[in-house]
Design a protein that fits this description.
mainly alpha, two-stranded antiparallel sheet, 126 residues
């Protein structure tokens, strides 16, 4: 059984790839906090990447609201932020908050994968 065929695992793998890319980008921002004219960067929200993965919310009733459409994938988005006198726009406190959010997203994806694997093991009797 190829676990990448299971939509939940494919989605978790995509989420972990997004988390990895974002963590790398945020680390680069912090590493360049003293670099003149460095512009803080971030990835587009993961919800935007879901549209590329062809994951759609199901409307089970016509009275339900249609999901908001998001465009793009993992692409970087420029942030408009306050700049230091040297032109640097990195705010360490904001970057650390983003890193904490990214860490929580990683924990959620890995824990969901572990729980789902536990259910699969229970179902096959292991």
């Amino acid at each position: 059984m190829d676990l990448s065929d299971v939509p939940l695992f494919a989605l978790a793998d995509r989420r972990l790839a997004w988390v990895d890319a974002r963590q790398s980008l945020l680390a680069r921002n912090i590493a360049n906090a003293d670099t003149p004219h460095w512009q803080s960067q971030d990835l587009k929200p993961f919800a935007a990447a879901l549209t590329q993965a062809s994951v759609q919310l199901a409307r089970t009733d016509p009275a339900h609201l249609a999901p908001a459409s998001a465009t793009g994938g993992f692409g970087q988005s420029a942030q408009v932020a306050e700049k230091a006198p040297d032109g640097n726009s990195v705010a360490i406190d904001k970057e650390l908050a983003k890193i904490a959010d990214t860490d929580a997203a990683h924990d959620l994806a890995t824990n969901l994968t572990k729980k789902y694997l536990g259910l699969v093991r229970t179902a096959i009797g292991r």
